[in-house]
């Protein structure tokens, strides 16, 4: 099953380790700016640390705008063929997430290739903010979080074996519908 | 063997008075002997002092401000995002430096520079913009009166990109508050010794940097292997997760347990309400995210938001231990939300939280004792656990209003105004003391007294080891460990990396010699690097001696000598003057300095 790199921005600390390992893997360079993943940090309104990386779209806008068909989707990954690419950077501008990058020293746009299925960024993230999960599982944590914050959930605390625990339940029949 | 990589060999020199900039090639000898960061800074400041016959006004155009990352800064190794700001300090009139984390140092390196030096005074409030190594001075008078954060935003708008890093000063820096700091990335500060005031005196409101270059690492593969080992060790440490969660805030509980937490202006060392301001409280009610410096897996910084109550909407990165102790227990404040509000205010104004906490605490005690009268306080009372009055007073200091105008000049000026305050405020050489009580551990007293920038824990932080094994130590052991710390810890500042992986997670310091070797291509052992660091310490001492410091300045604050701790595990303890003087003599002897603490004058020829 094709897997995707997903980002949990709430966990990101902004250390930019992902940028560094990406640049080392693809360019053998100590230069965090030569990476296909970059952490965008804004504060204090809003407080966001967001690693931005290619989503490997099924209908990739970058593929659509490429005038020389250098971009194609193979095995669930959107690839950039640098032997065809003319570096017009139309893909960089077309990506709705800004997840394709340009660097002055590089001849081609920098785009995530998922390290052939074993992304370095995921392996090195010290916070677990980057995960590699099957596409079908996408959104699972959101769904889970969502039911936990469901408005009518109640919580009681109790002690079991000397340990404080809490249980959550839905109050039924007490709310006016 | 010589240095083959690691450096761009470029120093950018900016003269703000004439508006000119030039790039100076750094020679082999300089790189090898001073490594970077604090080493570069000390050497360049020394040269500048010599040129001016050792007469420099910290706020004059002649005072050189050195901004220096190290050869390891920005490289693939844990916590490599530090740089040093070095100058003659307006707080002490002596050598001063302060280091800063975040991403600015990395950007400066990527701009192709190893060092930035600034002299002169700009004709109007200005921004220094360095774009890939090319510098421009842009007058921006519209920045006057803006907070650090507002300034950062306005600079980004002016340059037209988010992809830069900016160091700014707040109103306090503009007003030359002698403990103003330089700020970057929201709340990373070069806090101590008044670096912000120096920038303010130069009419330099902000420095923005953009850089895209590869760092010249000599042996990248070797570095990668070494770093992966180090990071693996760190991630496997049993406190790694705990560290990520609480960061430096976990120290509150530790310090209270051990009886070293400054409370009510260092009167006591345990705080009854410590459980209202500790890391647990932060995790439970305030923390909304983590923040890390460049390449740091530990992410010691916490982002906190006050969600309800009087301070609702306060959001800040921090506080860490020092800030929380100095603005919390030291002022008797037991409301974590109020501490966050004070932290945010300090960040906005751009003042150092350690000095501010010290001074506000001293004012509260001074008022209580009747040394400072109500009319001195502009008619506004201030008491323990009085957040409103504290916030008001911090604002006055930053803006230099009323009593704030005196307080803004730091401990020395306060004592001049109210001589009795000498018994109330804790400082060494004019720099207010950090948040570890030194009566419990004599080595910490010696560390503060002999630190080259004043009473700061940056050079030696021996308190934790003394708490654990100090009972069996002789004073000779204490001297030995202080000197070792004062040699190793500044080495991190010279290399341009953070020392927390070593001190908090026990990462072996030998890794850093390997990092250095891989990056520069110059084979060096830890001992060789330590020797270089020791020589820089001799140099900063010679500098301080030339600027008038004597044995008398390596002193203990009155409270440490004369006022016993009130309660807790260290109740009744003081650090006796005679014991201290013996240690000090032993310390000088160990360093090869004479009885007055003067290193041999012949050393100057070797600097």
Describe this structure as you would to a colleague.
- The complex is a heterodimer of chains A (177) and B (607).
- Chain A is α+β, with helices and mostly antiparallel strands and 177 residues long.
- Chain A has a single domain (3-138), classed as Alpha-Beta Plaits (2-Layer Sandwich).
- Chain A is 20% helix and 25% strand.
- In chain A, the strands form 4 sheets. Chain A has a two-stranded antiparallel sheet.
- In chain A, strand 7 (153-160) and strand 8 form a beta hairpin.
- Chain A is elongated.
- Chain A starts with a strand and ends in a 7-residue tail after the last strand.
- The relative contact order of chain A is 0.19.
- The mean pLDDT of chain A is 90.
- By secondary structure, chain B is an alpha+beta fold.
- Chain B folds into 3 domains: 10-210, Aldehyde ferredoxin oxidoreductase, N-terminal domain (Aldehyde Ferredoxin Oxidoreductase,  A, domain 1); 247-432, Orthogonal Bundle (Aldehyde Ferredoxin Oxidoreductase Protein, subunit A, domain 2), CATH 1.10.569.10; 442-606, Aldehyde Ferredoxin Oxidoreductase Protein, subunit A, domain 3.
- Chain B is built from 24 helices and 17 strands.
- Chain B has a 6-stranded mixed β-sheet with strand order 2-1-6-3-4-5, sandwiched between helices. Chain B has a 6-stranded mixed β-sheet with strand order 8-7-12-9-10-11. Chain B has a 3-stranded antiparallel β-sheet with strand order 13-14-15.
- The longest helix of chain B is centred in the C-terminal third of the chain and has 21 residues, at 475-495.
- Chain B is globular.
- The A-B interface holds A 10-17, 20-21, 24, 28-34, 40-44, 47, 49, 103-105, 124, 126-127 and B 74-76, 103, 106, 110, 149, 162, 185-186, 212-215, 217, 220, 223-224, 231, 235, 244, 288-299, 303, 305, 315-317.
**Helical segment tally of chain B?**
24
Biggest interface found = A-B, 31 and 38 residues
* Assembly category: heterodimer
Number of strands of chain B: 17
Q: Between the first and last Cα atoms of chain B, what is the distance in angstroms?
A: 20 Å
Strand order of the largest sheet of chain A: 1-6
Number of helices of chain A: 5
> What is the global morphology of chain A?
elongated
What is the CATH architecture descriptor of the largest domain in chain B? 4-Layer Sandwich
CATH architecture call of chain A:
2-Layer Sandwich
How many strands, which pairing sense, and closed or not: the largest β-sheet of chain B?
A: 6 strands, mixed
Question: Gap between N and C termini of chain A, in Å?
Answer: 42 Å
